[in-house]
């Protein structure tokens, strides 16, 4: 367990450093950035100080921003995946295999994070791009090793196994997509830029459809995986039934079906486009119905029970229901007067497409944060103030989810202005909530530094002498 704790501190430190660096790049923190010696203006940035907003593309920098977004998302995804692997390894792998997997995972995560920052902001050359790919490759082989060694023993573990397999398939999709970009760069960029104005214009490109497949599958399965690991940690009431007929076994089977159909429908978008899109929504709804009901199966008396219930409700309120309304209101308003393809509302669909993925990524990160203050040591009991921190995390997360939807869907009609930094919903709801969430993360990191970090730092100092 000592090795597990060391890696938990390493991934926490990596997250603080990498995400902290990205936060420093915000236009509002420009004076701080300059004081630290970082460039005042970023190459290829979309931010236009004259408009106090971000532009879709910046032609003068060869549309480099679009590539940077992909790199940044991959680095955050890999850090979250590393954090998830630590939990999985601690629960299911033998000590020898666990140590090898986690050492490789730490190397891969550091390689990806460092190469992304160097390539995007300091030295854009082929070497750092190749280093980035090497880090991703390490994670693919980690997945293969786990697939060969992990032997599920019950339905929960079969669900976890399936999540791993589907993530591996999604990584192959991403690898094909990345390699295709090298040969069909202009077509890919053309589809990406057009889709920013109207997703229908991107549908004609197989690369845009493959990107949609990759994004849908990877984030949905990753969030499902961390939820399943939370169930493994918290434990479930195996004898409980919902409505006296739905048992735990039924819900596990429903989750397997939901994962499988949703992922296969996502991958099918690459080949069939809009028809497959119609399958994704009901499959995703099936999956989140199963996870919501499973959260009520969590044993009482554990903080994970209200956390998982609250998280699943947030997904319904802030992702599933608005997503369904958005999907059926693209061209003709149904539940409220918002026609996304109307020029006066085209900002709404773009904002929703971007915000939708941020909400899912935020959910994964928040659940990881909750699990890290609960497992393997329950800091909620060890430090009384951590209970307040835990509840503040959940409350600020929920408010941020709602506030992001208001930003995406409740702005007045007007000319397209992407990412306005003075938006009402962002300034009074989303940003304050994220500040509270950031403070809670900082407090949790200080606890990790005290509990796990200081001993690791001392051992490194002693060994160096």
Would you write up a description of this structure?
It is a single chain. The protein is 76% helix and 2% strand. The model has no long low-confidence stretch (mean pLDDT 84). It has a domain at 308-320 and 332-465. It has 465 residues and is mainly α. The two termini are 26 Å apart. It has helices at residues 2-24, 30-35, 64-92, 95-121, 126-149, 155-183, 185-197, 199-202, 206-234, 248-272, 274-295, 304-328, 346-372, 379-382, 385-409, 424-464, and strands spanning 47-48, 53-54, 241-242, 246-247. The protein is globular, with a radius of gyration of 22 Å. It has 16 helices and 4 strands. Strand 3 and strand 4 form a beta hairpin. Strands 1-2 form a two-stranded antiparallel sheet. It has a two-stranded antiparallel sheet with strand order 3-4.
Task: Provide a quick synopsis of the model.
The chain has helices at 2-24, 30-35, 64-92, 95-121, 126-149, 155-183, 185-197, 199-202, 206-234, 248-272, 274-295, 304-328, 346-372, 379-382, 385-409, 424-464, and strands at residues 47-48, 53-54, 241-242, 246-247.
